[in-house]
């Protein structure tokens, strides 16, 4: 049934060209499994897990039921000076899934909050150890860590620097981007690169700031929002070694790679590297209720508790009203149970290979295609930009796909497909073929 009875006077859409949107609204009114219903009664296949969130697919009864039950039991309770039973249970499950001694979970409500929380933990931890001078952060070019000032500062998104640059944190530097044009085609594997993307960290960036001043390095294991850029083999292991050598904390922003996208619990498991902090959000609740968090190694928490301050003094002066919200925590518990019961992370790994094969066999040689990258359950096709109008080609292709019933994600001149883990081969075929037709039509 078509639903058109909404007016667009009040809702200012985030990260959206609003002027274009008003001419051609794209409004969802329902979703089930892999498929949305739109306001004008059309079906659209969710090719991006609704911003990398909906691993188990839409409208999953066990999650919905858990939320309803929680609302009737404990709807909300203060997060400060007291807590709720669901938050403890969810934290325990998350800690049990995390590798190594990543055992202490600080909840928040989004990936942006997780980024800022992790940076604040880094400063507080070093200060607690008597190294308060460690206050330099290192991020990476094209890194995305959300929209808070901390996350934007360590992020490497030019549009953020253009508009918000003057308000960003001062003591921040950036690793170079990890893309090697010689590795434009990456097919279900970690690329090998002749380029040493970390050389300048040791030869220039750390000497410039003095390593003893550096609090933390934060990276996404795979650069997700930028367009699924995959680090060369050994990159994250070496980054871990460099951080260890200089007493620098390593933060993995796993808001996209966490909870199954790589076919493993976390990107840290996929790459066999344990960071000091691991940021998560999105898929932890299947996207159904906002939740984010930072998983910290035991030694960070232990250090923060090792204080001479009186017992009524708060050890870490940070938190959100909705940290560990009971309804979000109930959603997380049900989601993580469901992922396990249906073995959905392994399925994501298997379907990732199918998706990667489809990308490479379909897009190679199509007009304007200059790269294809697949690993985990996500794949990207990179297109040559229209001269003078970067991003226009991919955006128009995105619109065209939407009209034809496929939700794909434009990122600059890259188009990404990252479906829910329940995806079937037929959905992959629909998504990839729709995208391919559109790429040809926009030659
Ligand atoms: C790696 C990463 N960090 C942080 C964020 C920000 O998350 P949120 O939009 O929930 O604030 C995102 C969002 O896509 C992300 O991909």
Automatic annotation (TrEMBL):
UniProt cross-references to InterPro entries, sorted A to Z: Aminotrans_3, Aminotrans_3_PPA_site, PyrdxlP-dep_Trfase, PyrdxlP-dep_Trfase_major, PyrdxlP-dep_Trfase_small
Key word Transferase present: yes
PROSITE patterns named among the record's database cross-references: AA_TRANSFER_CLASS_3
Keywords assigned: Aminotransferase, Pyridoxal phosphate, Transferase
GO molecular function: transaminase activity
Names of the cofactor(s): pyridoxal 5'-phosphate
One family name in Pfam for this protein: Aminotran_3
Family: Belongs to the class-III pyridoxal-phosphate-dependent aminotransferase family.
PANTHER family in alphabetical order: AMINOTRANSFERASE, AMINOTRANSFERASE CLASS-III
Official protein name in the record: Aminotransferase class III-fold pyridoxal phosphate-dependent enzyme
